[in-house]
C-alpha cells in the first residue's frame, strides 16, 4: 500500500483546460471518493493517476515515486472500470490471474492468491466461465477480484457500480466498504452519485469545472459545505436555497426576501448590510410550525411525497420552491397554506457573488474542513 | 465475505516499480501512432504515390517503348493532340454511359436485395451466401463467361431474347455497335450487385429496431416507415458508396477489355480501356499517361463536387 | 376489420413476392456459374452443336484431366495461392495496425493520411503500370512473385484498413486500458487482447483481400513475362493464344480457379456484413 500525492496537476487538451491545478494528498490506506457532475474532471484525474492520460503539468506521486513518466503497467495500481473491461476471450480465472501471469509469478503463488480472492468474493463456482456467461453483479465481482489478486499499491475505481440495478448497487457498496476495511488498501473511487460518496468515503473530494471545491469527511462536507455548489450537490433531497438581501443592526442580522418577508440569521463575520446573500437550509432543517411561532413564514403546499418512513413536502415560499422533510404524517391538503420555520443555527448563508459559505462564529473550535480559499468575505 | 483475511495477499508476486521508458513516455506517446501507420504509409508512397508522380511526368514526355529515340520532354503536346482526338471524346461519353448505366442497376438491385435479406426467412443464410458469390468470381473469368452467354452459338441468352420477342432473331449484341455496351454493363451489374447489397445490408442492420416499433405505434405504414426511417438512415452510406463506386467503375476496364476490347468500332471504348489500348497495344506510354492525368483530374473534380454538394446540403438542412 | 383482412392476404402476397424475388436473384447470380460448369463438362465435338442446350447429351471429365495433368495450370494455381495467400496475410497485418491507429489514436496528420488513402482509391490503376514497372525492374522485382505481392499489398491496404478500423471501433477502449494497467505495453495489449477479439474482422479482411488478389489480371499480365511466375489468370489467357482457344479446357481451369475464391468468400461473407454493420462505411 502507498500514499498518493498530487501536486498542482493540470490537464488540458490544446486550449481546453480540463483540470486547473489539483492538489490532493491521499494517505496510505485511505478511501477517497472523487465526486462531481459529469464533465467535472474527476475521471480525468483518476486516469491521470492510472497513467492512462498524460499530465500536462504538475506531479503525481505514488509512495515515494513520481510516476508522471511511468507507463500504467509500471505504476503498480489496479483499476475497476465502469464497463468492468473483462477480457471476453478469457475465463474468470484467467481474467483474474492475467496481471500475475504477466509478472511471471510462480504458478503455485497465482493459484494460491486466486483461491483466496475467489473465496472472499464468492466466485469459486464461476472460475471456468467466460464473462459472457455471468450476470452483471458477478462481472462486477470478477472485476473487483482481478484488482484485488494483484495486491497493488492502490485501487482505482471508475464508477464501478453505475451499471448495476439499485438493489445490487446498495449491496456492492457495503461489500466494497467491508473489503476495504479488511485489505486497508489505498483507494480512489470516482462517482457522480453523492450517496455512494457519503456512504463509502473516508474523505470526499468534491469537484466542479476542473477544480477541487472541497475536501473533507462526509459529515464535514454535509454539515459545512464550502460553497453553494457543494451544498447543492451533496445531500438528497437537495438543500433548499432562498435568495435575499442582508439587513443588519448592531447586534442582529437578517435576510429579506423579495416579497418582504424577513428571517433572522445567526451573526457571522463578513456579513454586511445590502449584501446579496443566499440562505441554504436542508429539508430536515425546515419544520412545519404553528402560525404563531416566532419567525414562522406562510408557504403554499404544492406536492406531498410519502416515502413511508418519512414524507417530503414541496412548498412555495417567497417565489422559491422548497422541500421539507418530516417524520410526521401530514394532515393538510395540497394548495393549502401552512407555516414553516427554519432551524436558524443549522441554516447556511452564502455570499451570492463568490458563492462561498459565510461560516458562523464558532463556539467550539471544531471546524476542520479544508476549504479551497478563505471563506471569509471577499 | 468469509475466509482468512490477510494471508491470501501475502505478496503475490510484487515487482519493484520499473523505470523503463522514463524519458520517453511523452515521446513514445507522440511517436506510437506513427509506428503503427508507417508500414502502410511507406508502402502506399512507394507503390502508389511515387508511380503516380512518375506517371504524371510521362504525360509531358514522349515515351514510346519501341522507339529508342523517344523519352524527351515535349511539354503540352500530348494534351494538344488529346483535344483533337475524337476517339477520346467518344470514350469520355462511353465512360459516362458505362458508369451510370452500371451504377443505376447495381445500386437499385443491390438495395432491393439488401431489403429482401434484411427480413428473416427460411434459408436466408444460404441465400445470402449464394447471391454474394459473383463478387468472388475473378473479373476476367466473368467477362469471358458473359461473352460466352451472349454468343448465339454457345450461349442461351440471344435465344431467350428472341423467344421473348426482344430480338427478331438470335444475334450477338457484342458485335452490334449500338448495343455492344450492354454486354459489359450486364456483366458488371452481375458482378457489382453484391457490393451494394453487402454494404446496404450492413447499414440496414445497424438501424435500431425500436425506431420501427415506435413508427408502427405512431401509425406509419410500411411504405411510410421506409421513407421516414430506412432511407434517411441509409443516406450517408448510400452517398459514400455511390461516390466511391462511381469512381471505381469509371476506372474499371477489365470487363470491357476481356469482353469486347473496346469494339466493335470503338463503341465500347471507355477512357480507362483507351488508356490500356494506348499503353499496351500501341506502347505509347506518354500519350496514355496524358489521358490518365485528364481522367484523374475529372474524377477528383467529380469527387470534390459531390463532397461540396453534400456539405452544402447538410448545412442548409 | 379492414386491417386484419388486408394483412392476412397482404402477408401471403408479400411473402410470395418476397420468395419470388429472392429466387430471381439467386438464379441471376448462379446461372452464369452453372453455364461455366456446363461448358467445362461438354465434350469438344458437341461443344458447338449443342451450344445452347441446358445440359449436354453426354458429359466428359477429359477437360479437367487435361488441365490437371497435362497443362501448366497446377503450377499457375500454386503461384496464385502463394501470391494471394501472402498478399492477404501481409495486407491484413498492415491494415490491422493502421486501422488500430485510426481507431484509437488522435495524432497530427491523421486526416491527411486518411485523405491520402481515399485518393488512392480514385487512381486509374492502368496508369500506374508503366511507372511501377520502371521502379520494380532495377530491384529485380519484375517477373517475380514477390513483386506482385508487394504491388497487390499496397493496392489493398487502404480498403482493408478502413474495414479493420470499423471492427476496432466496435471494441471498447477499456479493454486495452485494463490490459495496460495489468502489465501489458500498448502493443502487447493490441496483440493479446484486442486482436483475438477481432478475429471475425481479421477473417473478413483476409478473405476480401485474398479474393481481390486472386482475380487480379492486368498487373499480373504486365509485370510477369515468364511462365514460371505466372498466376492462373495470366495462365488462363494463355489457353487462348497457345492452344488455339480450347474453351472446354479453359472453362475447366476457370471452374477449378473459382473453387478456392468461392470457398473463402462463403466462409467470410457473414463477417463482412457484421464488420460493416459495426462501423458502417467510414469515409
Comma- or semicolon-separated keywords:
heterotrimer, A: 378 residues, alpha+beta, Rossmann fold, OB fold (Dihydrolipoamide Acetyltransferase, E2P), five-stranded antiparallel sheet, 23% helix, elongated, C: 283 residues, mainly alpha, MetI-like fold, 12 helices, 76% helix, 0% strand, globular
Oligomer category? heterotrimer
Number of helices of chain A: 8
**Mean model confidence by pLDDT of chain A:** 89
Count of distinct strands of chain A: 21
The CATH homologous superfamily name of the largest domain in chain A equals P-loop containing nucleotide triphosphate hydrolases
For the record, the CATH architecture of the largest domain in chain A stands as 3-Layer(aba) Sandwich
Number of helices of chain B: 12
In short:
The complex is a heterotrimer of chains A (about 375), B (about 325) and C (about 280). With about 375 residues, chain A is an alpha+beta fold.
Describe the 3D structure.
- The complex is a heterotrimer of chains A (378), B (317) and C (283).
- With 378 residues, chain A is α+β, with helices and mostly antiparallel strands.
- Chain A has two domains: 4-228, Rossmann fold; 237-362, OB fold (Dihydrolipoamide Acetyltransferase, E2P), CATH 2.40.50.140.
- In chain A, 23% of the residues lie in helices and 33% in strands.
- Chain A has helices spanning 42-50, 92-102, 107-121, 136-149, 166-183, 194-200, 218-223, 228-233; strands at residues 4-13, 16-26, 31-35, 57-62, 65-66, 77-80, 154-158, 187-191, 203-208, 211-216, 240-248, 253-256, 262-265, 276-281, 286-289, 297-306, 311-317, 320-326, 337-342, 348-351, 370-371.
- In chain A, a hairpin with a 2-residue loop joins strand 1 and strand 2 (16-26).
- In chain A, helix 2 packs across helix 3, helix 2 (92-102) runs parallel beside helix 4 and helix 3 (107-121) crosses helix 4.
- Residues 365-378 of chain A have low confidence and may be disordered.
- Chain B is mainly alpha-helical.
- Chain B has a domain at 88-283: Orthogonal Bundle (MetI-like fold), CATH 1.10.3720.10.
- Chain B is built from twelve helices and no strands.
- In chain B, helix 1 (25-58) packs across helix 12 (285-316).
- The longest helix of chain B is centred in the N-terminal third of the chain and has 34 residues, at 25-58.
- The N and C termini of chain B lie far apart (59 Å).
- Chain C folds into two domains: 2-46; 63-279, MetI-like fold (Orthogonal Bundle), CATH 1.10.3720.
- The longest helix of chain C is centred in the first third of the chain and has 39 residues, at 2-40.
- The model of chain C is unreliable at 1-5 and 279-283 (pLDDT under 50).
- At the B-C interface, helix 1, helix 3, helix 4, helix 5 and helix 7 of B face helix 1, helix 3, helix 4, helix 5 and helix 6 of C.
Amino acid at each position: 500500500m502507498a500514499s498518493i500525492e498530487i501536486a498542482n496537476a493540470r490537464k488540458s487538451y490544446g486550449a481546453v483546460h480540463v483540470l486547473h491545478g489539483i492538489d490532493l494528498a491521499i494517505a496510505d490506506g485511505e478511501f477517497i471518493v472523487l465526486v462531481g457532475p459529469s464533465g467535472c474532471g474527476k475521471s480525468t484525474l483518476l486516469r491521470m493517476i492510472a497513467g492512462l492520460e498524460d499530465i500536462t503539468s504538475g506531479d503525481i506521486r505514488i509512495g515515494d515515486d513520481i510516476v508522471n513518466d511511468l507507463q500504467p503497467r509500471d505504476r503498480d495500481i489496479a483499476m475497476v472500470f465502469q464497463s468492468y473491461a473483462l477480457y471476453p476471450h478469457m475465463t474468470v480465472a484467467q481474467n483474474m490471474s492475467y496481471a500475475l501471469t504477466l509478472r511471471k509469478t510462480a504458478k503455485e503463488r497465482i493459484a494460491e492468491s486466486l483461491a483466496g480472492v475467489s473465496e472472499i468474493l464468492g466466485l469459486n463456482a464461476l472460475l471456468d466461465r467466460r464473462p459472457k456467461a455471468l450476470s452483471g453483479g458477478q462481472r462486477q465481482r470478477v472485476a473487483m477480484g482481478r484488482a484485488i489478486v494483484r495486491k497493488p499499491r492502490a485501487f482505482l475505481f471508475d464508477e464501478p457500480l453505475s451499471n448495476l440495478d439499485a438493489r445490487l448497487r446498495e449491496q456492492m457498496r457495503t461489500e466494497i466498504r467491508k473489503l476495504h476495511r479488511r485489505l486497508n488498501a489505498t483507494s480512489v473511487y470516482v462517482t457522480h452519485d453523492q450517496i455512494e460518496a457519503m456512504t463509502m468515503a473516508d474523505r470526499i473530494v468534491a469537484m466542479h469545472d476542473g477544480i477541487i471545491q472541497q475536501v473533507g469527511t462526509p459529515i464535514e462536507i454535509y454539515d459545512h459545505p464550502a460553497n453553494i455548489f457543494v451544498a447543492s450537490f451533496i445531500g438528497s433531497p437537495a438543500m433548499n436555497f432562498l435568495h435575499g438581501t442582508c439587513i443588519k443592526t448592531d447586534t442582529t442580522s437578517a435576510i429579506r426576501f423579495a416579497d418582504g418577508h424577513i428571517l433572522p440569521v445567526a451573526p457571522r463575520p463578513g456579513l454586511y448590510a445590502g449584501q446579496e446573500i443566499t440562505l441554504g437550509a436542508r429539508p430536515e432543517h425546515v419544520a412545519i410550525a404553528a402560525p404563531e411561532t416566532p419567525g414562522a413564514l406562510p408557504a403554499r403546499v404544492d406536492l406531498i411525497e410519502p416515502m413511508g418512513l418519512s414524507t417530503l413536502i414541496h412548498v412555495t415560499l417567497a417565489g422559491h420552491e422548497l422541500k421539507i422533510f418530516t417524520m410526521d404524517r401530514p394532515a393538510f391538503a395540497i394548495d393549502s397554506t401552512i407555516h414553516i420555520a427554519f432551524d436558524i443555527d443549522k441554516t447556511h448563508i452564502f455570499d451570492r457573488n463568490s458563492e462561498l459559505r459565510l461560516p458562523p462564529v464558532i463556539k467550539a473550535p471544531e471546524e476542520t474542513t479544508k476549504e479551497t480559499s478563505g471563506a471569509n468575505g471577499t | 465475505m468469509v475466509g482468512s483475511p490477510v494471508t491470501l495477499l501475502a505478496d503475490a508476486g510484487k515487482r519493484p516499480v520499473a523505470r523503463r521508458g522514463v524519458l520517453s513516455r511523452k515521446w513514445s506517446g507522440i511517436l506510437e501512432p506513427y509506428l503503427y501507420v508507417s508500414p502502410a504509409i511507406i508502402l502506399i508512397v512507394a507503390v502508389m504515390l511515387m508511380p503516380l508522380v512518375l506517371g504524371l511526368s510521362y504525360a509531358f514526355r514522349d515515351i514510346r517503348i519501341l522507339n529508342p529515340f523517344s523519352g524527351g520532354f515535349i511539354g503540352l503536346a500530348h494534351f494538344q493532340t488529346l483535344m483533337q482526338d475524337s476517339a477520346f471524346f467518344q470514350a469520355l461519353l462511353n465512360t459516362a454511359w458505362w458508369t451510370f448505366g452500371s451504377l443505376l442497376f447495381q445500386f437499385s438491385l443491390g438495395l432491393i436485395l439488401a431489403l429482401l435479406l434484411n427480413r428473416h426467412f427460411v434459408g436466408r443464410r444460404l441465400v445470402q451466401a449464394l447471391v454474394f458469390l459473383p463478387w468472388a468470381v475473378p473479373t476476367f473469368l466473368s467477362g469471358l463467361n458473359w461473352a460466352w452467354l451472349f454468343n448465339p452459338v454457345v450461349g442461351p441468352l440471344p435465344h431467350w431474347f428472341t423467344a421473348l420477342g426482344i430480338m427478331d432473331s438470335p444475334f450477338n449484341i457484342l458485335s452490334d455497335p449500338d448495343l455492344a455496351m450492354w454486354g459489359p454493363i450486364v456483366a458488371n451489374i452481375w458482378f457489382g450487385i453484391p457490393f451494394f447489397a453487402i454494404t446496404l445490408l450492413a447499414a440496414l442492420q445497424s438501424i435500431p429496431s425500436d425506431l420501427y416499433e415506435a413508427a408502427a405505434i405512431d401509425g406509419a405504414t410500411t411504405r411510410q416507415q421506409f421513407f421516414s426511417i430506412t432511407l434517411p438512415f441509409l443516406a450517408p452510406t448510400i452517398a459514400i458508396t455511390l461516390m466511391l463506386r462511381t469512381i471505381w467503375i469509371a476506372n474499371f476496364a477489365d470487363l470491357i477489355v476481356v469482353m469486347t476490347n473496346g469494339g466493335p468500332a470503338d463503341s465500347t471504348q471507355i477512357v480507362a480501356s483507351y488508356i490500356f489500348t494506348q499503353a499496351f497495344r500501341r506502347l505509347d506510354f506518354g500519350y496514355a499517361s496524358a489521358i490518365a492525368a485528364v481522367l484523374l483530374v475529372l474524377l477528383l473534380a467529380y469527387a470534390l463536387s459531390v463532397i461540396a454538394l453534400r456539405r452544402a446540403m447538410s448545412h442548409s438542412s | 376489420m379492414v386491417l386484419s383482412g388486408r394483412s392476412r392476404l397482404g402477408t401471403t402476397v408479400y411473402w410470395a413476392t418476397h420468395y419470388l424475388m429472392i429466387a430471381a436473384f439467386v438464379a441471376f447470380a448462379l446461372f452464369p456459374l452453372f453455364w461455366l460448369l456446363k461448358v467445362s463438362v461438354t465434350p469438344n465435338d458437341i461443344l458447338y452443336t449443342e451450344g445452347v442446350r441446358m445440359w449436354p447429351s453426354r458429359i466428359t471429365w477429359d477437360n479437367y484431366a487435361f488441365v490437371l495433368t497435362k497443362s501448366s495450370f497446377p503450377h499457375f494455381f500454386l503461384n496464385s495461392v502463394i501470391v494471394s495467400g501472402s498478399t492477404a496475410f501481409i495486407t491484413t497485418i498492415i491494415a490491422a495496425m493502421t486501422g488500430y491507429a485510426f481507431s484509437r489514436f488522435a495524432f497530427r496528420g491523421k486526416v491527411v493520411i486518411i485523405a491520402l488513402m481515399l485518393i488512392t482509391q480514385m487512381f486509374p490503376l492502368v496508369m500506374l503500370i508503366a511507372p511501377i514497372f520502371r521502379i520494380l525492374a532495377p530491384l529485380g522485382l519484375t517477373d517475380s512473385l514477390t513483386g506482385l505481392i508487394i504491388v497487390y499489398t499496397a493496392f489493398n491496404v487502404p480498403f482493408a484498413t478502413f474495414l479493420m478500423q470499423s471492427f476496432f471501433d466496435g471494441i471498447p477502449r477499456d479493454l486495452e486500458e485494463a490490459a495496460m494497467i495489468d502489465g501489458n505495453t500498448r502493443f502487447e495489449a493490441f496483440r493479446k487482447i484486442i486482436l483475438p477479439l477481432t478475429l471475425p474482422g481479421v477473417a473478413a479482411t483476409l478473405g476480401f483481400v485474398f479474393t481481390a488478389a486472386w482475380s487480379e489480371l492486368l498487373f499480373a499480365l504486365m509485370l510477369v513475362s515468364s511462365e514460371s511466375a505466372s498466376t492462373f489468370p495470366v495462365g488462363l489467357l494463355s489457353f487462348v493464344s497457345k492452344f488455339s482457344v480450347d474453351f472446354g479446357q479453359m472453362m475447366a481451369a476457370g471452374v477449378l480457379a473459382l473453387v478456392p475464391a468461392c470457398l473463402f468468400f462463403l466462409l467470410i461473407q457473414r463477417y463482412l456484413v457484421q464488420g460493416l454493420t459495426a462501423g458502417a462505411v467510414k469515409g
